[in-house]
Amino acid sequence: QSYCHRLRHDMNFLTSTSRLNEQVVDKIVLQLNRVYPQILTNEEAEKFRNPKASLHTRLSDLLKHLQKKGERHCQEFYRALQINAEQLFNDLPSRKILKTPDPTEIDTDKEQYMLNDRGPVFFLACFSVAAGLAVFWYCCNSETQVIGRARRILGFSPIIIGRHVRNICMLYLEDISRN
């Protein structure tokens, strides 16, 4: 979409009551007047900052004026709006249209929900399989030479205590068995 078309689409949203206050409109007008390239001349900026006219009228006139000037002017207005009123910029109807997802794109929120919708039984089954494999791997590991009972008890230690603590206990048991 062109910026002029977007501005035409967003005009009602921007001019509705309490969307933009006087200070934000003045900042936008000043930015359009002072930033290179100069979008508004000094006379135009004074006209759109005139406190005698209502805010709604000044804003409507500003938006119509920018649409007449062309694409570059509308683009600079959107840039000024983003800088001075980012939340309002993000809530614009034209931005919401641009943010609509591609139908072929994966909705990550929905996918996350679908992955987490397995229930506690699924979690317990996966945890049990992982714990069983850990115990099996530990008991079949030929590197550790530890007393039989201690080996059986410490086989479950990855579940209860950390790996480093388990290794220290194993070394201590080996030293005791040598003496």
UniProtKB/TrEMBL annotation:
UniProt key word Kinase: no
Residue stretches making up the CARD domain: 38-96
CDD domains assigned: CARD_BinCARD_like
TM annotation in the entry: 120-138
Record's subcellular location: Endoplasmic reticulum membrane; Mitochondrion membrane
A single GO BP: regulation of apoptotic process
Name under which the protein is recorded: Caspase recruitment domain-containing protein 19
Taxonomic source organism: Daphoenositta chrysoptera
